[in-house]
Amino acid sequence: MSEKVLMKGNEAFSEAAIRGGSRYYFGYPITPQNEIPEYMSQEIPKYGGAFLQAESELGAINMAYGAAAAGGRAFISSSSPGIALMQEGISFMCSAEVPLVILNVSRGGPGIGGIHPGQADYNQATRGGGNGDYKVPVFAPSSIQEAVDLIYEAVELADYWQNPIMIFADGILAQMMEPVILPEFKPEIKYEDIKKLKPWAITGYGDDDANRVTVKSLRMQPEDLEQHVDYLFEKYAKAEKELVRVETLGLEDAEIVFVAFGTTARITKEAIELLAEEGIKAGLIRPISLWPFPYNAFDQISDKTKVVISAEMSMGQMMQDVKIGIGKRFPIELINRTGGIIPTSLEIAQRASEILRTINN
Amino acid sequence: MSTHKIFFAGSGGQGVLLIGQMVTYAAMLEDKASTFFPSYGPEMRGGTANCTVVVSEKNVSCPLIYEADYVVAMNLPSLIKFEPLVKPGGVLVLNTSTTTQKAERTDIKVLEVAANDLALELGNMRVSNVIMLGALVRATGVVSESSIEKVIDELIAKRRPEMREINVQAFNLWKE
In degrees to the nearest 10, what's the CA dihedral of A100, A103, A107, A108? Predict the structure, then answer.
């Protein structure tokens, strides 16, 4: 077991990607994730990997597409407006079934927005910001340790599902420091093994008589394309069953059930303690996978609950999924801040307490 | 107290982020949960810098705070901004070398430390932050003195061995 180290979020995320096996990093600077390209430029070449600063985010995603299509394990990171620019490439890679780990250190929007933390990329991440029918599994860590573990695992998951996997972090997790245990280095994958492990990858003919392989997202025949979309959605249906991750807290006797992810969930946990001091029982559903969303967790909410509150740093983008999860069983309210403002635990507790008072009267 | 919430504030270059990290690191060495969150923004010369540190016996849930058990204020703007955020009964460590006004609160404990003057007496202005840290640690017990000495070795002396001694002296300077 490794020792605890104190690391900044962005540096720990980078180290986790390297230890998980990522060897090709492409990026373009944007706050609040700039320590990632800085760290990668120093560290990834030490493991035989490559760091390249692209000319733009569009360049970065397409370089990652190329590296991954050739069988390499690629990792890219950016922040909200930069991730928006990458959507075309993400759609192409989903269609072409090429693995990738994408980290979004999200910030306030819309437009170029601001540089402070935000969660308003929820729809972009879970509904797909690119064209066509496709899905990207999205995981939202709420601590640096959880982010490290998810990024490390995502390298394997991307290969297994032959699809991009997104990690949805925010400016707080990226900029803060906390103790973390780093996982062991995954064994190196040799170039000769890629042909066996990834028969779909474009590794070149070499000396053998391997079949020609093509990585593409263009299908001119409608029947051919429809068949491909159906095939992709069979895969996504399986992912919807297997990739759900959720943490629940105190649902049995909660009067208020919060739904919150990422840093907002951490703040909400403290708000739950503040409410307990007032004698109000509150619980939490923390989606770790944003797609697939943990709809089934909502069945655990008991009849003692009077209201479900979605706490977010957006105008209620996740609340749409909360509505699907609870149907008409409970009233739903929103507690939110935008613009890069982080709600405090006191603010969440006070607003929740007012909401409960209104409902009880 | 099972959770200690601290703001460290000053101007860029006064080393407030370093002493915030030192407390976070020391807490980790003591197997406590700890988080460090720096303010971040467009960088400016002479701009303000502050960070939030939470040290807890239990799992830290929230790395952000709206009030503090302790505040370390290295300059006047920090005093004005953060004095109102100290919890009643809390501790304010104030650098009186750079502040022309006194703290107003009477329901908190105020430690007046002429950190810049003391640092100059030691021979290096740059250790004023560690003098403030010494006052905070001895007044509050947020982490142990021996943990901070280990952190001086790890975070300072590894890169700058010649700076070890003066930092240890600076840390041990302030006594109530």
Answer: 30
The domain of A321 spans 246-360
Contacts of A276 (CB under 8 A, 6+ apart): A282
Instruction: Look at A267 and B62 and tell me if their CB atoms are within 8 Å.
Output: yes
pTM of the model: 0.96
ipTM: 0.94
Do residues A160 and A45 share a domain?
Answer: yes
One domain, residues A184 and A285: no
Instruction: Give the nearest chain A residue to B65 (CA atoms).
Output: A344
Asked if the structure places residue A330 within a domain, the reply is yes
Interchain CB distance below 8 Å, B33 and A179: yes
- Report chain A's C-alpha Rg in angstroms: 21
Distance between CA atoms of residues B171 and B129, nearest Å: 9
B57-87 confidence digits (pLDDT tens): 887 779 999 999 999 999 999 999 999 999 9
User: Which member of A178, A267, A269 has the closest CB to residue B64?
Assistant: A267
Residue A339, token pair as written in the block: 């613009």
All residues of chain B having their beta carbon less than 8 Å from the beta carbon of residue A31 are 40
**Chain B interface, Cβ < 8 Å to A:** 21, 24-25, 28, 33-38, 40-42, 60-66
